[in-house]
Amino acid sequence: MSTRRILLCMAHMSGNEMKYIDEAFADNWVVPLGPNVDGFEADLQQFLSHDDPSRSHIRVAAVSAGTAAIHLGLILAGVKAGDEVICQSFTFSASANPIVYQGASPVFVDSEPGTWNMDPDLLDRAIADRIAVTGHRPAAIVPVHLYGMPARMDEINAIAARWGIPVVEDAAEALGSTYHGHACGTLGTYGALSFNGNKMITTSGGGALVCPDDESRARAIFFATQAREAYPYYQHEHIGYNYRMSNICAGIGRGQMTILDEHIAHHRHLAGLYASMLADVDGIEYHTCPMEDAESNYWLSTITLTPDAIARGLDPDTLRQRLAAIGVESRLLWKPMHLQPVFASAPAYVNGVSEDLFARGLCLPSGPWVTDDDILTIVNEIKLYLAR
Ligand SMILES: *Cc1c(COP(=O)(O)O)cnc(C)c1O
User: Fold this and answer.
1) Is the pTM value of this prediction over 0.85?
2) Atom of ligand 1 nearest to the CA of 70
3) How far apart, in whole angstroms, are the C-alpha atoms of residue 40 and residue 203?
């Protein structure tokens, strides 16, 4: 057994990052704007729209975190205090927290079993019910591509359009995932990306808001830079935020963009290994993309113990502890937001899917540092546990 720990998803540098940071220091651009911010935004825009003329209009605003990007997306979508916003329940809390920052209230919608993401039928019923209960249309919808797996965006967007509700797409985990030939992050009215330390690429901490045009991008940057009106003195007519990305972080981002394609390819390679090595293991299901014309980036690889295995007394947390004992980090799936104490009073439209996945599922290591041998080690330990 190796003494090296195998971690869930660790940041990995290309070697080009320091060049951009050195440039920033040489030119004294150590501020939240500058050539690296412009360059990183241009790189992201190119990545999200190349080979896809239908996305030539998108513009990117680099910000301090994915959470900030979601908040700005909600502001631009027109979410105001007192509004309700529909959010996928099966997600990380950062999808929902900005709804509360905005003075609005989250309404949670459960997942469908194929993608593990927002169930379109339940979404439709939830909207109709909220209008019946409150007399108001929810102000926005926040679907998530969990673990990089694309949500059923055609159905979600069609429902959103029918009700006239903007979509703020949480693509924090889905940089590099595609859906019907389009990049995740470009599928909603606004899209949010994250470059936190454990995501597909990192800027140490950071995010981006994907906007539909120049005007909305300028509006996002206005709110992200303290909402300063165009006067010779500081004039404020809106509450602003300090959300812009620094030129140093953006330098890391530009370096990371040089290896993004390799990162995505490696995550998918590892996913393929897990899938084939676990294919005939009784008691385990490896989660793959259920849709023909969509592809996950497999940010994290995820498995579920089958109901049979659970009935035999196996459980994901014991498996997690066994893996930890041999130096492998794994993590239970996200605990649904409608089960979180902090959101206990939020309305929730549930069907049992996310609760069931939370009880049976586990995230396995992926990313640039994980080797083929590591997958063998992990799969062998899983097999030993199942043979118990
Ligand atoms: C990481 C993450 C976020 C938040 O991004 P930060 O950059 O950490 O603020 C939002 N939603 C999901 C689903 C995430 O995984």
Assistant:
1) yes
2) 10
3) 10
Cα 120 to Cα 151: distance, rounded to the nearest angstrom:
9
Instruction: Encode burial over 91-118: b for 16+ CB neighbours within 10 A, e otherwise.
Output: bbebbbbbbeebebbbbbbbbbeebbbb
Task: Please list the residues that pair with 109 across neighbouring strands.
Answer: 88, 349
φ and ψ at 61, to 5 degrees?
-115, 115
Q: How many CB atoms lie within 10 A of CB 193?
A: 29
Q: Which amino acid residue places its CA nearest to atom 7 of ligand 1?
A: 66
pLDDT per residue as tens digits for the range 213-253: 999 999 999 999 999 999 999 999 999 999 999 999 999 99
Determine whether the shortest distance from the Cβ of 377 to ligand 1 is under 6 A: no
Distance separating alpha carbons of residues 263 and 233, to the nearest angstrom: 46
Residues in a beta bridge with 84:
105
Give pLDDT tens digits for 328-351: 999 999 999 999 999 999 999 999
Task: Indicate the residue type of 123.
Answer: L
